From TrEMBL:
Source superkingdom: Eukaryota
PROSITE patterns, per the entry: DAP_EPIMERASE (PS01326)
Organism: Thlaspi arvense
UniProt enzyme class: isomerase
Cellular component, GO, one term: cytosol
Name of the protein: diaminopimelate epimerase
Catalytic activity: (2S,6S)-2,6-diaminopimelate = meso-2,6-diaminopimelate
Similarity comment: family membership: Belongs to the diaminopimelate epimerase family.
Gene3D superfamilies tied to this protein: Diaminopimelate Epimerase, Chain A, domain 1
EC number annotated for this UniProt entry: 5.1.1.7
A Gene Ontology molecular function term of the record: diaminopimelate epimerase activity
Length: 362
């Protein structure tokens, strides 16, 4: 796959449905104009710079635009929409016509490269539902690996589906994921509330090789990382999480002081986590207000992690540090998390926003 650092794409949009859907999201945040335009992507930066120039009438007459931007099917071209949830950004692909991803894991890793590709934390595919669900969601991380699920990603997925299906107002649907059934609900204010299911605490199901110290659960157990002892609680939200509030016998964490690039990989690849792990470093601001930084398995340091926010609230409750309903501050912004006692389910509420749409040469 070849993607130039600066590429020029000529696109014509005539679908009123997509024009309505995506102009609402992009019109206020960029200089993008729909119709015939020449777009220049400068993908070496996390910010998109767009230049648009009207084509002359002669050139325009020679072009026969497709019926819909996302319905174009040229060989070697992938059409996508870029979304983010609190800065955790994804390339969303309309894959509803097939149960096989349109690109390989290797191609996904190249697309996610922030210097030589589009730039993202992962590529998400909207696929046909199975076992009675409305849709299937698959995701390839920026390193090409495939996680079971992604909390911020599922919110972006929900908004993407709403735009593709032209859904207005409050809607919910069922999504099949590698972590099981996930049910997002788009709220009237545009936020997405997601039923994330029941947390998994049994050590071998997280999975972790750490021995259960509270029944079969690993709660505030000792983990030696690079010669230092940390207190950790292990939780699975369909994907593994190691949550820590600090070192054994040490002060509570000040997460802004962490050298995440140094310590994060040592947790991710620790021998006690056979499937590797996501790691949440947490600072308690109050019993209803937590702050975290995250090192994601397969993606590294990210601005937000939805499943991680859910896992840390579970850990904080189990360790007696917090209530069941909390605001969790992530580098990209806050999420509202509630672990309901009535059904044992965790509910996550937060934003998801479209950033831009484009095409990539494979």
């Amino acid at each position: 796959m070849e993607i130039a650092a600066t590429s020029t794409v000529s696109v014509a949009l005539q679908s009123s449905r997509l024009l309505h859907a995506f102009s609402r999201k992009l019109g206020s945040s960029s200089s993008l104009r729909f119709g015939f335009f020449e777009r220049k992507y400068c993908v070496g930066s996390s910010r998109l710079r767009v230049s648009a120039a009207s084509m002359d009438a002669v050139t325009a007459e020679k072009i026969s635009p497709p019926a819909s931007f996302l319905d174009k099917r040229e060989t070697g071209v992938l059409h996508f929409v870029k979304y983010h949830g609190l800065g955790n950004d994804f390339i969303l692909v309309d894959n509803r016509d097939s149960s096989e991803p349109k690109i390989t894991q290797e191609q996904a890793a190249k697309l996610c490269d922030r210097n030589f590709g589009v730039g993202a934390d992962g590529v998400i595919f909207a696929m046909p539902g199975v076992n009675g669900t409305d849709y299937t969601m698959r995701i390839f991380n920026s390193d090409g690996s495939e996680p079971e699920m992604c909390g911020n990603g599922v919110r972006c997925f929900a908004r993407f589906i709403a735009e593709l299906e032209n859904l207005q107002g409050q809607h919910s649907f069922t999504i099949h994921t590698g972590a099981g059934l996930i049910v997002p609900e788009i709220q009237d204010d545009g936020q997405v509330k997601v039923d994330m299911g029941v947390p998994i605490l049994k050590a071998q199901d997280v999975p972790t090789k750490l021995a259960g110290n509270k029944g079969e659960a690993v709660i505030q157990a000792e983990l030696v990382v690079d010669g230092e002892s940390w207190n950790v609680t292990c939780v699975s939200m369909g994907n593994p999480h190691c949550v820590t509030f600090g070192k054994k016998g040490g002060p509570n964490l000040k997460v802004d002081d962490l050298n995440l690039q140094e310590i994060g990989p040592k947790f991710e690849h620790h021998e006690m986590f056979p499937a590797r792990t996501n790691t949440e470093f947490v600072q308690v601001l109050s019993r209803s207000h937590l702050k975290m930084r995250v090192w994601e398995r397969g993606a590294g340091a990210t601005l937000a992690c939805g499943t991680g926010a859910c896992a840390l609230v579970v850990a904080a409750v189990l360790e007696g540090r917090a209530n069941r309903k909390c605001t969790v501050d992530l580098p990209g912004g806050p999420l509202e998390i509630e672990w309901k006692q009535e059904d044992n389910h965790i509910y996550m509420t937060g934003p998801a926003e479209a950033v831009f749409y484009g095409s990539a040469l494979l």
